[in-house]
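EI: anyone free to look at a 124-residue chain?
SC: sure, send it
EI:
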Amino acid sequence: MPRKGQQTPISDFEDMAKTLQARVESWSKSSNAARDDAERARSRAEADRNAAQEARDHALMQLVHETARRASAEESLQQMEAERAALADALAHERSATGQLQAALAESQIHRCGRPRSFTACRS
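SC: here you go
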C-alpha cells in the first residue's frame, strides 16, 4: 500500500491518461481550426479564381467588340475613300467636259466673228 501522498502505478497511469486525453483534445481543436482555416483559404482562392475568370471573359468580350468596331470603321473608311475617288473622277470628268465646252464655244466664236472670245464684238 502506498503511503499518503504517494501515487500508485494505477493513479500514475490515470494521470497520464488524463494528460494524454487533454493533449488529444487540444490537438483535435487545433487540427479542426487549421482545417477550417484551410477551407476558408480554399474558398477565398476559388472565389478569386472565379473573379479573375470573369474579368478575363469581360476583357475578351470588350476586345471582340472593339475589334468589330474597328473592322466596321475600317470598312466605312474604305467606302468613303472609294466614294471620294469616284467624286474625284467625276470632278475630273466635269472639268474636262467644261474645258471641251469652252474650247468648242471659243471655236464657234472664231468661226462666227473671226475673233476668239469676243462676245460683245460679235453681234448679229
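EI: The mean pLDDT is 88.
SC: 👍
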